Amino acid sequence: MKRRILTSLCLPLLLVLAAGCGRDPSTETDAQLGLNAQQAAGRRIYNLRCAGCHKAYSSRGLQGPGLKHLFRKKYMPSGLPANDRFVERTIVNGRGMMPAAGYTLSDEELRDLLAYLHTL
Ligand code: HEC
Known about the structure:
Blueprint: H1 2-22, H2 37-49, H3 84-93, H4 107-117
Helix pairs in contact: 2-4
The chain binds heme C.
């Protein structure tokens, strides 16, 4: 009897966990990801300007390092602090093989992009 209760509790939980593992956030809609309008705008910029070289939802590298949990870590791969100031500087000035976005992004686009990066 006890085992039956345990199984009935654990099975749904396992299914939910398994489904969670298989999910690929990059294929989900803005709504599924719970993005607000600014973050969704930033995601569009990211997909155009960054996704070719950086995976958003994985720490595996592409041309550049994966950006999963970028702002949840204390430091970026280079050792610079992972905060708005240094991430913005990286985007604007470029870094190593990463091209500088310079003034090809407006202040608003930069703010939107940073807002999205905070959701990773
Ligand atoms: C052409 C490929 C390319 C594009 C496009 C690109 N990056 Fe990069 N990025 C790189 C490479 C390569 C590095 C590693 C640079 C190094 O440390 O030498 C990097 C590093 C970074 C880092 C880590 C910096 C550090 O201090 O460790 C961040 C954050 C970053 N990129 C964000 C972005 C964002 C946001 C965009 C879109 C605006 C973007 N990148 C566009 C190639 C790219």
